Amino acid sequence: MGEIALTAVMAALSDPIRVGLVRVLADGRERGWGELRTPVAKSTLSHHLRVLRDAGLTRTRQEGTRCFVILRRPELQARFPGLLQAVLAAAEEEDIGHRVSVKDAEQPA
């Protein structure tokens, strides 16, 4: 995996849905794509996840027909110390990405 470029990271974080996905993934847990709740169609969610992956913000793992995503927090912290924390704090303060969440375990998919 190549170097994470600042311009790619900043471009990826220019969309509220992608910021919301980063907020959800910031807990460090790997999530199945089906667990993610967004106000967009599945194809649009797939696009947003691809943008985050291509920018180096996330890593995607496929297991059979399921895909899992995790935030590359250690790599981002090493490359851009404090950037992720600043983005998450600003997103929280400005309520950016609040429409993205994780489905409850009891909720049917």
From TrEMBL:
<dbReference type="Pfam" id="PF12840">
    <property type="entry name" value="HTH_20"/>
</dbReference>
<dbReference type="GO" id="GO:0003677">
    <property type="term" value="F:DNA binding"/>
</dbReference>
<dbReference type="InterPro" id="IPR036390">
    <property type="entry name" value="WH_DNA-bd_sf"/>
</dbReference>
<dbReference type="InterPro" id="IPR036388">
    <property type="entry name" value="WH-like_DNA-bd_sf"/>
</dbReference>
<keyword id="KW-0238">DNA-binding</keyword>
<dbReference type="InterPro" id="IPR011991">
    <property type="entry name" value="ArsR-like_HTH"/>
</dbReference>
<dbReference type="InterPro" id="IPR001845">
    <property type="entry name" value="HTH_ArsR_DNA-bd_dom"/>
</dbReference>
<protein>
    <submittedName>
        <fullName>DNA-binding transcriptional ArsR family regulator</fullName>
    </submittedName>
</protein>
<feature type="domain" description="HTH arsR-type">
    <location>
        <begin position="1"/>
        <end position="95"/>
    </location>
</feature>
<dbReference type="InterPro" id="IPR051081">
    <property type="entry name" value="HTH_MetalResp_TranReg"/>
</dbReference>
<keyword id="KW-0804">Transcription</keyword>
<dbReference type="GO" id="GO:0003700">
    <property type="term" value="F:DNA-binding transcription factor activity"/>
</dbReference>
<keyword id="KW-0805">Transcription regulation</keyword>
